[in-house]
Amino acid sequence: NTNNETKTMPSSTTTLAAVAAGCTLLAYGASRLTSSSKKASTDVAITDLDDEILSEEDCISAEDVVAIFDKLFLTMQNVVVQLSQQVQQIQMSGQMIPEAQLRGLLKAEFERALVACQAQVYEENDVDADCLEEATWEFMEEADKYPKVKRAVERFQKLYESISGEDVVGWTPSKGTNNSSGGGAAKKELSAEELIKAATLYFETLTEKMVDIAKEYVAAGKDLKDPKVSQQYQMEASSDANDAAEEKLKSEMDIVMSDFRAAVDKHSRVPAVGQTLGMLQIKQQQELMAAGVPMM
């Protein structure tokens, strides 16, 4: 029965792409982006966000920062999908890894991959890590003036947060972490029943927004099968759909993402929770495909 259990009760980490980073699932649940993940499989270990930024003489523009973080996001998003697939394969073989250990392993693998990825992206963009870091935080100090930088940086932070479980979205050296995703706020513990309701609301909102964005692309004559268009779609959906789902959770159920993630970690092996998450992912896949988003 172990195999049946793993199919109906996924680990919180196998649903992690679908949950904490909303569109890390970006699509099609945690297991659809296999082909595009291959090039991201370099060995990587993490340094701090600090040790990974670029420079171009002493002059790195806001556009440079956005381009670099977008590239890091797309590459590491594929790494997350690969890791989720590996976890699924382990579980299908009948092995069960404790959630805390699994979270630690995934964080370590993500960070290892990030180190390699950063080195490659920095070299491609001819930038220096220290200069990039300095430029990034300078732009983030004036986030209202550089909204695209804020969007790109926080999109990447949100991806890391989904793997690590740490509240890092909005962090800057001078301000620390903002509380938009729950950092510093009183913790709200959800029951399994509350989690099922919250997950349903989250995924339905997420999927609806992703489908709307896909329809807008198609209506504008954009071919979602084109790799460049697909990447553009991923970037937009990763921010807009995820934000919409988080806002819905907060406004209708007063739940922040850190508490949502904690509830998934706690209850993911409850049969009803696992079945609900699995069904929501399948439904999302079907609706995205019907909207013209190709399986990758």
Question: Can you characterise this structure?
Answer:
- The chain has 296 residues and is mainly alpha-helical.
- Helix 8 (192-219) crosses helix 10 (257-267).
- The chain contains eleven helices and no strands.
- It has helices at 2-8, 16-19, 34-37, 62-92, 99-125, 129-141, 147-164, 192-219, 227-253, 257-267, 271-290.
- It is globular, with a radius of gyration of 18 Å.
- Mean pLDDT is 74; it is low at 1-57 and 179-184.
| Helical coverage, percent range | 55-70%
| Number of helical segments with 4 or more residues | 11
Beta-strand residue percentage: under 5%
Distance between the termini: 31 Å
Beta-strand segment tally: 0
Largest sheet: none
Unreliable runs: 1-57, 179-184
Q: What's the overall average pLDDT, rounded?
A: 74
Radius of gyration: 18 Å
* Overall morphology: globular
The H/E string reads HHHHHHHHHHH
Q: Helices and strands: which structural class?
A: mainly alpha
